[in-house]
Amino acid sequence: MYLARTLLKSNGVKAALFALLAIVLVSCETVGYYSQAARGQLTIVFAREDIQHLIERPDLSQELAGKFAKVMDIREFAESELGLPVGGNYSSYVDVEREHVVWNVFAAPEFSVDPVNWCYPIAGCVAYRGYFSQQSALSYAAKLEEDGFDVYTGGVDAYSTLGWFEDSLLSTVLNRADYQLAGLIFHELAHQLVYLPGDTTFNESFATAVEREGVRRWLAKSNKDFNIDAALLDYDRQQQFVDLVGGYRDRFESLYQLEINESSMRSQKLELQQTLREEYAVLKQQWQGYEGYDGWFSRSLNNAQLSTVASYNDLLPFFAAVFEQSNQDFSTFYAEVSRLADLPEQERDELVAAIE
């Protein structure tokens, strides 16, 4: 989330350089932000426990032992079948002792669906600002709201350090189904393979494409028909959710282009938000009452919240097409995505438009 790949091998050196970011920047606010990021990441690094050693402990519960063994299986598959850079990633475990590991703050103007971007060294500009403390995230969100922005704050259960550190399995994801855990690991490892600084949509859509195909292959090899059906149903619902929100995002964008006064625009914005909730209620009936997105729809549905859906899905059709053109071979696919990431932005955008 905050860091990128480096050739340095020593975690101690990495930790020192990471902490140094907090004192080389200019403003007090920036120093404070990077200080909390450094503290949060280093806390995780120093709390790591080797999973293989944990599995060998006689007092480890059968449930945890089974979950850890499954992670070892997922790691092996990610490396041998998907060509992902596993290394020491997910070979350690950390109990973060809270519901989420990080809270991300998203913001957008009151009458625009384009999110605010924050820029960081190496990682470039992204459409969120992450905090290891929920209260810190909420405090920053409140300041943005005072400035008139639409703001959305959401908890994050895992993230990638982009190869700077060996990522750990966190307690925040242990309650997920095995195929969901596999998808998360494939997704985060994909970020270490290809990462385009400053382009959240490119990065997240690519990682999501790897996640979905990886899960499909992992379940097929595991010969778990029930889990395959559950995963396909999960992804189908997710796509319907994305299509619904994406369609309304376009409607909000059209609204904001109208030459009407702010009062009328604000009123019509509220009406659109309510209509979106009503359409979700209809969709939910088709899902036999599945409640997985209830929490999301209970929020304000403002521009910042809508932007979070776009980041992970807007370029999925593009990457699916590139994967097919790569004969469904991951090595060829990764090479082509790396080539695309190295292109000038305008040239890359033209290729994306041509394939879409």
Plain-language structure description:
By secondary structure, the protein is mainly alpha-helical. The protein has 14 helices and eight strands. A three-stranded mixed sheet has the order 1-2-8. The longest helix is centred in the C-terminal third of the chain and has 32 residues, at 225-256. 35% of the residues are buried.
What amount of the residues lies in strands? 5-15%
Q: What separation lies between the terminal Cα atoms?
A: 28 Å
With helices defined by DSSP (H or I, 4 residues minimum), what is the helix count? Answer: 14
* Poorly predicted regions: 1-10, 15-27
| Helix-strand category | mainly alpha
Helix content: 55-70%
Secondary structure: number of strands? 8
